[in-house]
Structures are given as C-alpha cells and as structure tokens.
Specification:
This protein is of the alpha/beta class. It has helices spanning about 35-45, 55-65, 85-90, 95, 115-125, 190-195, 205-210, 235-245; strands at about 1-5, 25-30, 30, 50-55, 75-80, 105, 110, 130-135, 140-145, 150-155, 160-165, 175-185, 220, 230. α3 packs across α6. The relative contact order is 0.19. The model has no long low-confidence stretch (mean pLDDT about 90).
C-alpha cells in the first residue's frame, strides 16, 4: 500500500527550531516527527512511501539516506522550486501514486496511533473518492457531514465564509467536525484535481473537497474507539507531544 507524507512545510510557528531544519525533522521525545510518522504508517502496512520536500529538502533527503529509508521503499516528490500545498503536492506526486489502489495522505506534523489500516479499509467499503479523518474538536473551520458521513459543506466561523458556492450555513443542520490531517484517496481524483488546479499548481486540498462535495462522494471517517492525535505545529503542542508520544 502507498502513503504520501507531506514534509514540505516551512514550520514558521516552530521557529527557531526550524531555522536550520524542516519541521518534519523536529524531534519529539528523541525521534523526529518524520520518523514517527514513517514508522507508524509502515506498522499499519504502508511500505511504498512518498515524501514531498521543499524547505531544507536536501536535509530531509540526506536524513532518509542516512537511515537507509528505514528499510522501506521511499521516493522523493521534489518541490524545491515551489511549495505546492496539499492539493498541488498530491498532483506533483501523481507518478508515484497513480494506479488501481487508493493511497494514504498524511501530514508529517500529525502524530497519532490511529489504526490506519482500518481507515484504509473503511474508505474502500465506503465507495468514496476520498475519506477524511475528522473528529469533534474546537476550531474555527469545520467540515459539515450528513447522517451518512458524507461531506455536505464547509464553514469558517470566524469569517462566515462557506463552501461550496451558494451553501447556506445553518447551525445544527449538519454534524460539525474538524479535519485531522490524514486522508485516504482514490486515484480517480487525479483528473479532477488537474481540472480544479487549472493554471495554478499551488492549492490546498481542503477547498477542493468543500467546493466539490455536492457531486463527489467524500466520506468522513470517525473511528469508534479512542486514539491519540496531536497536530505538532506550534511550541505548545510540541510540548504536549513529548508527553504523549515518548515511550
């Protein structure tokens, strides 16, 4: 099974730690975030791994080489010329991901013990073109799901912005869940992403999901068991991660 790990981020909120290294190589309890994510996805059965790089790209490549790719088949999706965000990053990595089987997409700064294999199987059974990990969590931006776990809209509660075009947000009409930075995607999405991107290769996958949820089946995955999850994007959560994920 294939997994794309997003390791191209600048990590500005973690400065000065990211002044001389990419965010993915910041350590949590003696191990880099990238190592923790690679190890977890491999334990869940994903052994064909793509890592996208931009900020300190050579440092990431050297790091993987020095660790013998952790014994896995790891490819580099090179975004040194321009960081492409999540949607553009998926398109850039298409040569490694295209085919007959869905692939996992996982932010390098998301640490979790979620059963990714179960998530993958749920996506296959759902018949969706993409499945997103979501949970009840306080944030400003929410995916909105119906009773069948199908994405129906998106809202930014700070600005009032909604998607898709014409969507009217009504409190309590849909279940409001926060995106967890991990998704399973079927390769049928590639031509749709290409059309959505048009001339601009840099775009986020989140507005793509929200803009197209009326005619694409996008599934919300909420496991029925407790699991650890943390977005290690700022100093406060980095400190929490050291407590949660240090053996």
């Amino acid at each position: 099974m294939k997994a794309l790990i997003f390791a191209a981020g600048l990590g500005t909120r973690l400065r000065p730690l990211t002044n001389d290294r990419p965010k993915a190589l910041v350590e949590v309890g003696g191990k880099t975030m990238l190592e923790r994510v690679i190890t977890h996805v491999a334990e869940c059965g994903f052994t064909d791994i793509i890592v996208n790089v931009h900020h300190f790209a050579d440092v990431v490549i050297d790091y993987l080489r020095e660790h013998n790719n952790f014994g896995l088949d790891i490819h580099i999706s090179d975004e040194r010329d321009r960081v492409l965000e999540t949607g553009g990053g998926i398109l850039k990595a298409r040569p490694f991901l295209d085919g007959d089987e869905p692939f996992l997409a996982h932010n390098a700064d998301i640490l979790t013990d979620l059963d990714l294999c179960d998530f993958y199987q749920n996506h296959i059974e759902s018949g969706a073109i993409a499945s997103v990990l979501v949970k009840e969590r306080i944030t400003s931006r929410y995916f909105l799901f119906d009773e069948e776990h199908r994405l129906r809209g998106w809202v930014n509660k700070l600005t009032g912005e909604t998607k898709p075009d014409g969507f009217i947000y009504r409190p309590n009409e849909f279940q409001e869940l926060a995106f967890g930075g991990i998704h399973v995607i079927s390769p049928a999405i590639f031509p749709l992403l290409q059309e959505y991107a048009q001339a601009d290769a840099k775009f986020s996958i989140t507005p793509f999901y929200a803009d197209n949820c009326n005619h694409l089946h996008i599934n919300g995955y909420t496991p029925n068991y407790n699991y650890r999850w943390l977005d290690v994007g700022k100093p406060q959560t980095l400190a929490q991660a050291c407590e949660l994920f240090t053996e």
